[in-house]
Amino acid sequence: MDSLSQIALGAAVGVAVMGRKTALWKAALMGAVVGTLPDLDVLINHGDPIREMTMHRTESHALFYLTLGAPFFAWIVATLARQKYLFKRWWLAVWLVLITHPLLDTMTIYGTQLALPFSDYPFGIGSVFVIDPLYTLPLLIGTGIALGRKQLAGLRWNTIGLAVSSMYLLWGLAMQFYVGTLADKSLAAQGLAVQQRLVTAAPFNSVLWRIVAITPKGYAEGFYSLLDGDTDIRFVEYPRGEAIYNLVRSNWEVNRIAWFSHGYFKMEKKNGVISIADLRMGVEPYYTFTFEVADYTTENNHTKIIFTPPKQTRPAINSEQTLQWFPARLLGNTGQTLREFLD
Fold this sequence. Notes:
Blueprint: H1 3-18, H2 24-36, H3 49-54, H4 63-80, H5 87-106, H6 133-147, H7 151-189, E1 196-201, E2 208-215, E3 218-225, E4 236-238, H8 242-248, H9 252-260, E5 265-270, E6 273-278, E7 282-283, E8 286-287, E9 290-299, E10 302-313, H10 319-330, H11 338-342
Antiparallel strand pairs: 1-2, 2-3, 3-4, 5-6, 6-9, 7-8, 9-10
Helix pairs in contact: 1-2, 1-5, 1-6, 1-7, 2-5, 4-5, 6-7
């Protein structure tokens, strides 16, 4: 999740755990600061954009390492708060703040390597978008009111904020499952052979959902809004560039994206450049993580490939049309995909 959400969650958890043991502002401040620590891994330079992407949310988000580090950070917090006699309580608070950070991240689609050092599998559920005000606001409001009230009343408001935000996460999981069942029926009705599919929340909400299905011919994209008039989901198929992938699959960077995306990727050859895009994050034709990985030339029907240092590219987004399409699709006023709307 975004930094503000992690700060808000950390503060709320800190207040909930410390309760009447310390001043609410101390608990909130500790939670906010500790709740941001795992994301400091973005300051590490891994050398290229693909490593930067796939090595974020690794050791600093692993439950094992966070559990090992919790006593150290708790000792610092207890010392600064001048409450060493409450070390065990601070330890519990710090541990819960630390582990709820990656657990919340796991609800997004990005990929969080929770199980290191035992497994590097990047977990990503996709039931909530990385920025969702409806998740963050209850935490901010609950903790904000709590800091302005007396201890007991403040704790109640903080608990309400945590409860509402947690119920919103449960809502997202339920809606993701519901949309998944509709997607499976629609894919079967369209006669699409599906190898794997995912359902992810669209930006900033849990009303509009995006579905991506990998098929033998490429991949299919569809959208469903809870405000749509019917439950049929129309899918549009696009080429995935598997022939290109077979030419470059020996490349570490290409394989890294293929692994990290769980197979949800596409490859393109254009203007002498080969690129790979993570299909999970973005929308056709705009993808957040697109990388140029090689140059190519074609002579006498023979393609010569030269691998290059990976370079992340930013597509030129038609923001005006995109901003027109998004609310219309969310409200169920159009059945078009963004790609169709742009065309």
